[in-house]
Design a protein that fits this description.
Rossmann fold, 380 residues, five-stranded parallel sheet, 15 helices, eight-stranded mixed sheet, 19% strand, alpha/beta, 2 domains
Length: 380
């Protein structure tokens, strides 16, 4: 028997549509649909695992309070929230109060089924099939702390060390800098790939994507025009990631800053999140907010890796202070080396091409070695 599902919405059409979708598959079973939160609350099985779908299009605050109450009282429930006003602030709030996923309305069937598959895997404990590829998103909700430098240098070192195919994706659709940091002018960008998903295969990718010099690093650049990103859907983004997984051994994603929907989707699809910070109080507070959100989103704690950038041993705030404040171990420290890094950025090359023996170049090389070692161990 399927997992009982309860739908709460003011719109009877929304309830009927979701009911039809649920009845099309075997993992979940429709139990009831209603507009009344008290009625819905009394329908929730106390001991059984269940799915609650809450439409926040009307009575938003009441709905968020209901989600918070259910998530705190019943750990057997998984909650999906919906809204026809999918502002990013609302998405973040739903995750913070305990929702597993947020889906914008009108509902797209394929996206809904993807979420159901993921939730069923969580509830049943069945692991979804994964490829050998490792996807690492380099992320920070604060700008100007070296996120793109880390992504480009790490991707370059991985390609050199492993000799395997590495993809570097610029997912900062508004202000991407990956091509600037590597002095490239690619003919194709991520928008083109998303519009031609049916054509893409391994041969197509390796012959079309811009290759960095004589390495095995391939660049998927940001689109040159803002409007090209307007129609990008979560489904297309996930499909692109799945295609890339079949071609590349490593995928490094330079995400946008903040909590925009595409960045959150990339983080969800990643095997690891390199959460970048520096040693000052605003950065520590921002990092704490990120960790709180990731915890609400039920990310595995091992998925989040703290990267301390521009680190100096004699800083007023040291690494131990940061670990104590975050209650989390720092995964990697990249030393501060302003002159070598600025020279690399201005010349559009990785720092290893400026000074391969510098402390910062060696740090990137060792980080890449560490990642490759971990990846190989986990494949066995």
């Amino acid at each position: 028997m399927g997992i009982p599902s309860i739908i709460i919405s003011e719109e009877s059409n929304t309830i009927e549509l979701i009911k039809l979708y649920i009845e099309e598959q075997n993992d979940f079973v429709f139990q009831t649909g209603c507009a009344n939160y008290n009625e819905a609350y009394n329908s929730i099985p106390v001991q059984e695992k269940s799915l609650i779908i809450v439409d926040l299009s009307t009575y938003q605050e009441q709905g968020l309070n209901f989600v918070a109450k259910i998530s705190s009282e019943n750990k057997n429930c998984k909650i999906i929230t919906l809204s026809d006003k999918p502002e990013i602030d609302l998405v973040i709030r739903t995750m913070r109060v305990g929702a597993s996923d947020f889906i914008p309305l009108p509902l797209i069937k394929t996206e809904f089924f993807k979420v159901l598959e993921k939730i069923y895997a969580d509830i049943s404990g069945k692991k979804q099939k994964t490829s050998k590829c490792k996807v690492i998103s380099v992320y920070s909700n604060k700008g100007g702390i070296g996120k793109t430098s880390i992504a480009t240098n790490l991707a370059t070192e991985l390609s050199i060390i492993t000799k395997e195919n590495v993809a570097l994706i610029d997912l900062n659709f508004q202000l991407g800098d990956v091509t600037t940091f590597l002095d490239l002018k690619p003919s194709f960008n991520i928008s083109y790939m998303l519009q031609n998903l049916d054509k893409i295969n391994k041969d197509y990718l390796l012959s079309t994507l811009e290759k960095y010099k004589d390495t095995s690093l391939y660049i998927l650049a940001d689109p040159p025009y803002f409007k090209q990103t307007d129609t990008v859907s979560f489904t297309d983004l996930e499909k692109l990631f799945n295609i890339l997984r079949e071609t590349f051994s490593y995928i490094i994603v330079d995400t946008s800053g903040g909590f925009d929907s595409k960045a959150l989707k990339a983080l969800e699809l990643s095997d690891f999140i390199f959460l970048v910070m520096i040693t000052n109080l605003p950065a520590i507070r921002n990092c704490q907010r990120c960790l709180e959100l990731f915890d609400k989103m039920n990310y595995d704690k091992d998925k989040i890796k703290i990267i301390l950038n521009r680190y100096m041993e004699n800083d007023e705030i040291n690494a131990e202070d940061v670990e104590k404040a975050l209650d989390k171990t720092i995964y990697w420290k990249i030393p501060n080396n302003y002159f070598n890094m600025m020279s690399a950025i201005n010349k559009g090359v990785p720092v290893s091409e400026i000074n391969p023996d510098s402390n910062v170049a060696l740090s990137y090389k060792n980080l890449a070695l560490n990642i490759s070692d971990n990846a190989y161990l986990k494949r066995k």
